[in-house]
Write the structure tokens for this entry.
Amino acid sequence: MKMKKIDHIGIAVKSIDNALNLYKNLLGLEVTGEEVLEDRGLRVVFVQVGETRIELLEPLNENSEISGFLAKRGEGIHHIAYEVENVQEMINKSKELGIKPLSDEPKDGAHNTKVAFLHPKTTNGVLTELVEHR
């Protein structure tokens, strides 16, 4: 089991359309994907920076996964995601090491991935996402 690379950096925004003014119009980054994750209350857009992507996260409603984050902290870096070979194995290993996953099972993520998050209280204050590409 090992980490392959940084998969993406998640940035919580109030409006993806407004955020693209920076990422697409000023920096000239290419939009490589857009999805609506209804069950998680999210609209996500990916922009490519070299081998890494930036994931812009916009809430669809006040109960989305990032609504509380935006209300408490405002816009900004939400998480760092690492590509791994097997998310379930990483969840199991994290528990053995005293690193707390937010759930015992992976969830469906954007772009046909399986994902799990590790609690920031056990990851040096950084919400950490583990991503397995299918």
In short: The beta strands are 3-12, 30-37, 42-49, 52-59, 76-84, 107-109, 113-118, 128-133. The longest strand covers residues 3-12.
